[in-house]
What does this fold into?
Amino acid sequence: MDEAQRRELIRRTFDTVAPGYDRPALRFFQDSAVHMAEQLQLAGDECVLDVATGTGAVALALAQRLPAGHVTGIDMSDGMLDQARRKARSRGLANIDFQAMDMTDLTFPPSRFHCATASFVLFFVQDEGGHPTARSAG
It folds into this structure.
């Protein structure tokens, strides 16, 4: 399987699981998102990029802490992004947007964000030898 096929498989897989992704059994994602947002100790006016945002757990937690700031969440999966957008609307968050984008091909200017977050995505990143990073570390 080449890299393009691997990415397409990942995208399709997450599109498929997106509708049930936020079920209570996976509450760890929400809990860790809140913890991550707390740890950043943001002033409230920053612009933050959330890479591989999924259904937006970290992005939404950040947006709630940035009354004068903005969060951009990116993900390859339209299904996951649809869930994130729905959650943002239901919470009345206007300081957040979600975009379909591959984390390996960012198109933002270098100075656009104060910081970036990426949770539960490292195992999808390949090392220079083409192996998944988690396999290289283990």
Notes: The chain has one domain: 3-137.
